[in-house]
Amino acid sequence: MLMRQFFERESSTYTYLLADQGEAILIDPVLDMAPMLAGLLEQLGLALKYAVDTHVHADHVTALGRLREQTGCKTLMGSQSQAACASGFFSEGDTLAVGNLSLEVLYTPGHTDDSHCFYVPSQGWLFTGDTLLIRGTGRTDFQNGDAATQYQSLQRLLALPPETLVYPGHDYKGFTCSTLAEEQRFNPRLQVQDVAAYVELMANLKLPNPKMMDVAVPANRACGKAG
């Protein structure tokens, strides 16, 4: 069994490689890293079974289409993504199997309306995309995001075992991993009293749009191919 974390500097994106018994899955692969990822899979003798995105990204272009061309893998996205290019879709309650590893699909909308997380209970791993970040949460002001909905998604994640390891989709401060207990204690966006306070907090962030948003969103709905 193998789990690797990769960092793409331009968008501060984490990509994850999970493998078991010769089969592999890539979570949130970035287009610029596709050659490196394909080369590593070949070096390690791994067959890429799935390449998946936790949601339609606005800050980088996905490698799903490129990896499918290079490896023959299946590309999967959330059923709400409107991505006709995908080989298939996942939804709440689905399980993705890679060797003997089982990834449970959790629908966690709020950052976007197609946001999902992947939970591996046998290892205590939680891949949170942009729903839960280390000492932060994903913004909720575009792509049908909704702060109240995200608050409920976060409560659902926090109901998992506190020792669960959190592997986020991004980090901007150098963190690589956390736990749910640590985030419950130290994440400032989890210290609010109720959903109304969370909605107010998120409404006052006033963040600029991602620089690549106009390019990345349509490209990612086409599995990484610009129109």
TrEMBL record:
GO molecular function, one term: sulfur dioxygenase activity
Record flagged with keyword Metal-binding: yes
Organism name: Simiduia agarivorans (strain DSM 21679 / JCM 13881 / BCRC 17597 / SA1)
InterPro entries: Metallo-B-lactamas, Mito_Persulfide_Diox, POD-like_MBL-fold, RibonucZ/Hydroxyglut_hydro
Residue ranges annotated for the Metallo-beta-lactamase domain, each copy included: 12-170
Keywords of this entry: Metal-binding
Protein name: Metallo-beta-lactamase domain-containing protein
GO-annotated biological processes: glutathione metabolic process; hydrogen sulfide metabolic process
Top-level division of the source organism's lineage: Bacteria
PANTHER family: PERSULFIDE DIOXYGENASE ETHE1, PERSULFIDE DIOXYGENASE ETHE1, MITOCHONDRIAL
